[in-house]
């Protein structure tokens, strides 16, 4: 085992940034060489608490701290800018979700990474999709990859365990505004859900989105969304999400020619069909039929290591000479963002949109909403520096 430590700098000391420095303190093979925030008091306090240097501009951190790896944990619009500054200097990047606010910026960011790799072939770019490590989702990925369901016909995901109060939205001046955050539930809470959807099923060919703006909260962005997807090969998908439902539901149902999987409340059930469903549909002489199937509960290790630290450990391991796969390569962030932008573009234009989506059309819609916004943010109630972020992390077990 190498005794060398990876030198890490953190850009952004909000709630998620604080979570990063907390778990980094549990890792023996890293050294936090600097923290950065435009709020000088916040940067100074974090630096003092963690025995490191404070910076107030990202470029200063990149150029003066001696870091090898930058964690980008700032508001969403700044993800591409800071990541590209790091790439130009040959600095590895771990980017918080989402990769960007709009696909044009994400594509520019990915192009900058690919260009930088030509000069720095070992350059790494990862994105923090820690929900891929959750045991229930990891088991679903394994089962689908094995072909156990045969041809997929439908995936329906009701994920409403994203409750956010008005106090949450009032806790940051940038939150839930077109200019500050670039969107609502699809941009902030659901990048993980959208990533998981495309990780399991791939991107659809067609997106039909229906987004409700400020339906349950005093915000100017979406807080309830229903989307319909059409995939190559005929599979259809449904996604229902909101930040205004208690108690929330997280139910994922996947139907294939050979069976059905249901993940809900920490239980994964497998309904094995007695014969292929599509052939039965074509060939049976029964006009009405019902299969009485007793589902099998699929076991998975609920205690398997998961979360942010696992994702970071995988990246650090690679930087220290390992050859393991990252949990999520940075360019994979474009998939979740394509779904988010596609749903909103469809809703804005009140029509289905095809994939890949028209990035210019989405950006024009976003910029028009920024230009014409008359929304006035309430007085900000800032959360404490040690706010526990665990309640905001999704679960599949």
Automatic annotation (TrEMBL):
InterPro entries reported in the protein's UniProt record: Gfo/Idh/MocA-like_OxRdtase_N, Gfo/Idh/MocA_Oxidoreductase, GFO_IDH_MocA-like_dom, NAD(P)-bd_dom_sf
Domain of life (superkingdom): Bacteria
Domain Gfo/Idh/MocA-like oxidoreductase N-terminal, chain residue ranges per copy: 6-118
A Pfam entry, by short name: GFO_IDH_MocA
Domain (GFO/IDH/MocA-like oxidoreductase): residue spans on this chain: 137-261
Protein name (database record): Gfo/Idh/MocA family oxidoreductase
Species of provenance: Paenibacillus glycinis
